[in-house]
Design brief:
The complex is a heterodimer of chains A (about 110) and B (about 450). Chain A has about 110 residues and is an alpha+beta fold. Chain A contains two helices and six strands, in the order βαββββαβ. In chain A, a hairpin with a 2-residue loop joins β3 and β4. The chains are: A alpha+beta (about 110), B mainly alpha (about 450).
Amino acid sequence: MKLIKAIVRPNKVDDVKEALGRVSLSGMTVTEVRGHGKQKGHTAIYRGKEYDVSLLPKMEIEVVVPDELVDDAVAAIIQAARTGEIGDGRVFVIPVEQSYRIRTGERSDL
Amino acid sequence: MNVTVLALLGAAGQIDLAKLDQRLTAAQSSADNAWMLVSAALVLMMTGPGLALFYGGLVRQKNTLAIMMQSFALMALITVMWGLVGYSLCFGEGTPIIGGFGHVLLRGVGVDPNADYAGTIPQLTFMVYQLMFAIITPALITGATAERMTFSGTVVFMALWSLFVYAPLAHMVWGKGGLLNATLGGRFPTLDFAGGTVVHISSGVSALVCSLYLGKRTGYPKEPMPPHSLVLSFIGACLLWVGWFGFNAGSALASNGLATSAFVATHFAAAAATIGWLAAEWVTRGRPSALGAISGAVAGLVAITPASGFVTPLPAMLIGLAAGVGCFLMVTFIKGRFGYDDALDAFGVHGAGGTIGALLTGVFATRVVNPVFHDPQGRPLPVGWLDGNLSQIGYQIVGIAMAWILALVGSIVLLKITDLVVGLRATEEQEIEGLDLTEHGEEAYNLEM
């Protein structure tokens, strides 16, 4: 069981969601985040005063998947979120030890 | 209706001429009063919500309520003071420098007109209309003190400022027998139709003094302090533009051709100034900004204020253009060079724009629009420089100089007094946490869940 954490462009969330659906993954958590990697920010000017806007808005998508689906899921995300330009984002894969369903209290390792 | 026909009818005994005359006067009075009440409401709208939104959007999120609250508090405070003593000090009979106490507690101010100022509307209407000017003027200064002056300091300073800077200046320029009054026996007839000196130079120059006295905001200019919502500022600026019709066209004090002329001049100046600021920005910075557009409009409205009732549309556009470009240079290049922290550019827009406007009023004012000066036979005399009256430039400079000096000296003294009595500057922790929470115990936005 793995946690896939993908930081993508805000306008790519729907594409990623659709792609994950195609590899039969439905549950996910999406968070608005700000950050930067290699992508430089841009400059905002207010009445002649310049500010560097270095932290850019991104979306973070979290999905927990069974080990055997990890490769498909990662490939689906990368394909859906890529534009080929700097700033497309990152995908991280992190091991998950246990998982519980709150409604029933039972342990449910996907 | 034709006068001879009326006279014939009158002679025939069919119409009582005196009664007809009375009815005509009453009709004119009703029309004038309707327009002036609307104008008074429009000018109040400039402070709240206009200026409150304009400034509210320009500050950082943590200071939004604090700056809006200052405008609103002034709406209440100046109103009460105006009723007690303010109106009397501005418009009561007095010396050339300041009005007397004849109208204290609004004594003698009722539905009868005051023929010296506005002969067709109740003096109460005139009084409440002028009150709205007295409210917005100190509120403009809060743009310079934003994000670091305490609420108590603001209230005390503005109350004193209204009595010791605004009242004398308003009396000198607009009060009967005032030193700078152009139509009611002033020694130096300064043309100021709607408040270029009284409102904008006075507040703008005081704003500069305040920003120098208070010092820079903690972190300025290293830390980024971008406007938290230009959407709010945008709405505020649009309300200011509309409200300004009451400010300038209302200053005709009647619903007449002069009001229309001032309305048109105001609108054309704002449009030209918007284009001026944007063009200057586009050329020097590569992009035209929304903040530039609304700042330009306000700069044009400021500059046309003294001229609005004296100039035709073309000069109005030239004045607007000059203010748009001039104020852009002021806030973009000159402010940066001197390094003072006029947080929201109250001096850069109102001080600079007001001065440009007051000076150009002397250039472009014409008797075609407003025959303010007469020879003993009642024939109109030239008004501005291009109209053939070069000396008016000199009088405008005297008026501008008086406004600058009074605002400079008055503000320094009153800031010192306020500083000693209640203090002026928020602590560094207050500034970092934001004045909304530390001064008012509230936050502007509670959007998380």
